[in-house]
Amino acid sequence: MKVDAQQHLPLSPATLHVLLALTGGELHGYGIMLEVARQSGGQYKIGPGTLYDNLKKLLSAGLVEESQPEDPETGARRKFQLTTLGNDVLAAEVDRLSGVLRHARRSIRLAERRS
Amino acid sequence: MHTLHRRLYRLLVRLHPAAFRNEFAREMALDFEDAVQAYGPGCLFLDATGSLARQWSARILSGAPDPISAPRPSLLAGNYVIVHDEAFTPLELGRGLLASTAMLALCAFALSVSPGHSPDLPIVYAASSAPATDRNPEPGTPLSTGESSGSGVKVAQSAVAAFAQIETAPTMLPSNGSAAIPTLGCALAGFAPTQPKPELLLFHPSGPLTSYEVATIKPIDPNTASSMVRLPPGASLSPLSIRRYIMNSYGAIYPPQVVGGPDWLNKDAYLIHGKVPDDLESALQKMTREDRIDQTRMMEQCLLADRFHLQAHVETRVLPVYELVPAKGGLKITEVPAAPERKPGDPPMILHPGDPLPPGTLMTTSDSNGLRVLEGRAIKMQVLARSIGNEIGDRPIVDHTGFPGSFDITGFAWAPLGDAGATSEPDAPSLPGALKEKLGLRLVPAKDPIEVLVIDRIERPTPN
After folding, report:
1. CB contact, 8 Å: B308 with chain A?
2. B30, B100, B224, B271: least surrounded by Cβ within 10 Å?
3. What does the pLDDT look like over B230-262, one tens digit per residue?
4. Residue B26 and residue A25: Cβ atoms within 8 Å?
5. pTM of the predicted model as reported, rounded to 2 decimal places
6. How far apart are CA B293 and CA B255, in angstroms?
7. ipTM above 0.85, yes or no
8. Quick check: B47 contacting A, CB < 8 Å?
9. Which uninterrupted H or E stretch holds B311?
């Protein structure tokens, strides 16, 4: 499973945010947009175009699945949720980013000492 | 929302490859409707254009044929005819120029007045105690959501305002003597698609919300959820499912008006008790009953946002309803003077057995024969529709009688739905039958736009 997860790394910022938004449970498209904006304190917002570009890729890669199909009769909207693989990929990406952050902090500290 | 924006966005979506379009076009259009206020149309157009470029480039680079696009014949296929064209005469050129200019002017004018026809879909996020300015982000500013910064409240333009805008639009044109253009422009605008005013409006205030000073939330055995619980000092309340609590706080009359959310909303029962701040408590005593209800709803919405982390938005959906309309024989009840308006500070009405109903009130009871009996004094048709809607239950009842006055209703009895055998009067009419016989009204199945609250997110509270 972990090997599969590594194949999808690194994630683009939009993909990372979409996966992160879905950790709270199933959401429809606009719910994901709102959650992404909330997570970033409003600094990073994605529109429907970017969202569904990414969802299309995530669906085909099996990282996200549809939890509720659309129903024009009742007006129900499609909802999406993370798969187990999606969870693994997100965890692996967070590990990777943690390593990058550690390295970046160390480099900055060293640069500050030198100057 | 501007109709032109919506059309442009749908055009952009339609330009996507068919495989993508067929899978996501509806959701993209719905998300655009939801997001256009907060994100601004420019950002969303750019986003859709970027998506368009990415999708087409991905498709071209992958070289895969679009499986859903139907093959089309080449534009160059077919029979060819040679046309010997002659130069236009000055008269023909002049007529063509005039006609095309007039058409362009008409189109421009129709586009400039048509936005007023489409009322915005209000978006409401569960309120918190944050100031109103935080809950009303300007278009293009970050949309504050969730527990940290409260929520956005956008008030819908009413259909009345939309029509008023159309009425005034011609006066904004330069008065250059061309009276025919505004007239025709209005006529064209009149044919633009309109969205009727929604019925059964929800309560989503735009101002700052008050909150309970302190609130306790205790999970209760759902089996006891229908029984009253006594609270000190002498107050009592009924434990509610959270879906019912949300309905109450947003003024939803019928269950279909609250959509989505997890299953526990219907199953878990909680005893929620909020302490009203002392200063508000004394102010509430001086308010009218309606204002008191609104204040309570605001505090409940605040509690839902803070303790349940509720995120929700309001949509207008076309739902099955029954329309209450006059029957063919005409109305069988007579109009009476309207009930006097309740004044701020009036004591709450407490009815004792045997007391006559005060004007403006309605009571539904069950008699000894098992029949449901409705008595009303100086009540509006809307109140009657709401009351019998609770009896029918499967879909809302909307007042379309067109009678704005007040009416007395006496001796209006019917066999309860699905329980006809339980009454000792087998010939008792059903509710629709009694409506026709006694009141001269009938119920017509229809589909009407209704305001519904869509739950985007909610969490179980931490009991205290």
Report:
1. no
2. B100
3. 554 555 555 567 888 888 888 887 788 888 888
4. no
5. 0.45
6. 19
7. no
8. yes
9. strand B311-326
